UniProtKB/TrEMBL annotation:
Gene3D superfamilies noted in UniProt: 3.40.50.1970, Dehydroquinate synthase-like - alpha domain (1.20.1090.10)
Upper classification of the organism: Bacteria, Pseudomonadati, Spirochaetota, Spirochaetia, Spirochaetales
Protein name listed in UniProt: 3-dehydroquinate synthase
Listed cofactors: NAD(+); Co(2+)
Keyword terms, alphabetized: Cobalt, Lyase, Metal-binding, NAD
CDD domains: DHQS
Source taxon at top rank: Bacteria
Length: 349
């Protein structure tokens, strides 16, 4: 299976590996003259292809998503003699993919990049769209670029080795994309829920492809996030604030997104825009997936983090909200509504 998305002047091709296909063989065939640098972390280094001469293994985790790590990637590229026509291949989750793409975007003002995501979250969210970056001073992805990968390779077999929590991290983005798409997509998620929980490869391939189709349709219209692409941030303003307020401890990004989706619909309901029945349906769906909808966190700390959101326009934070499935809009919210929405999802308000 292959999908193509045009993002401004660049085209990102998504290729799903079939049984028996090898990612390194496809990459060598597509880029026969490029020096290839493989970047993995301690969790994914076991997937690095044997015989590749230029492999860099980074420490694993969000704590290492820093400019220091970017400079380590750049130093490695210089040591092996990489030029602007070289290719950076990320083999890992969202952290590895984000950092490798960012390093490629600034190395000699732009080298090639291929992404080989190893987690469901990276497959459905982090790889497509060109966002790259690092965290700084406790804020997620506050330094970064738009730099779409020329090739994204999806290997569903990787998912079989992931713990359930990692799978849950990606499913929140799948639910978000279904919410943006509409009722039909949400119904398909519901139908596939037993197969997803059972780890069925075909079910995962189906939801990954559908998520990428939804996201791709949005980013093709708005590759630099100047309009409709902001809809992809549904739930993320609340999610990033929770992550920042808790020091990125105790909540994976996907778990925070699920919490943020619930908070966004609560805020919309408080505003008088979100259908209460739709809000209850999504909360119940998140419950069926096993997500936490309540955080042991301080409301004021989360509220402060919301104020530092990097997507502010004209000094104000605009929240992505929904009236119902497929009906999405953005709006600045009064502080009291934001505070009530947050406290409604906190055990220690």
């Amino acid at each position: 299976m292959k999908q193509e998305f045009r993002l401004g002047e660049r085209v990102s091709t998504v290729r799903f590996l079939e049984q028996g296909e090898r990612a390194e063989e496809i990459i060598r065939r597509e880029y026969p003259h490029s020096l290839i640098i493989w970047v993995a972390d301690e969790n994914t280094s076991r997937y690095l292809p044997a015989g590749e001469p230029h492999c860099l293994v980074l420490p694993a985790g969000e704590a290492f998503k820093t400019m220091e790590t970017i400079l380590r990637i750049v130093d490695f590229a210089l040591q092996v003699g990489a030029g602007r026509d070289s290719l950076f291949v990320a083999l890992g989750g969202g952290v590895v993919c984000d950092m490798t793409a960012f390093a490629a975007s600034v190395y000699m003002r732009g080298a090639g990049v291929v992404l080989l995501p190893s987690t469901l979250l990276a497959m459905v969210d982090a790889t497509l769209g060109g966002k790259s970056g690092v965290d700084y001073r406790g804020y997620k992805n506050i330094i970064g670029t738009f730099y779409p990968a020329s090739l994204i390779i999806i290997e569903p077999t990787y998912l079989a080795s992931l713990p359930q929590r990692e799978i849950m991290g990606g499913l929140a983005e799948v639910v978000k994309h279904a919410m943006l798409s509409g009722e039909d997509a949400l119904e398909r998620i519901e139908r596939l829920l037993p197969d997803i929980k059972a780890g069925n490869r075909d079910a995962f391939s189906s939801i990954i492809a559908e998520s990428l189709t939804v996201k791709g349709a949005v980013i093709e219209q708005d590759p630099l996030e100047r309009g409709i692409r902001a809809h992809l941030n549904l739930g993320h303003t609340f999610a990033h604030a929770l992550e920042s307020a808790t020091g990125f401890n105790g909540w994976s990004h996907g778990e925070a997104v699920a919490w943020g989706l619930s908070r966004a619909l609560h805020a919309g309901e408080l505003l008088g825009e979100t259908d209460p029945g739709y809000r209850r349906f999504i909360d119940e769906l998140l419950d069926r997936f096993g997500y936490r909808r309540y955080a042991e966190a301080d409301t004021s700390a989360i509220l402060e983090a919301v104020g530092s959101d990097k997507k502010k326009r004209g000094g104000e934070v605009r929240f992505v909200l929904q009236k119902k499935a497929g009906d999405t809009f953005t709006r600045a919210l009064p502080r009291e509504i934001v505070e009530e929405a947050i406290s409604g999802g906190c055990l220690n308000p």
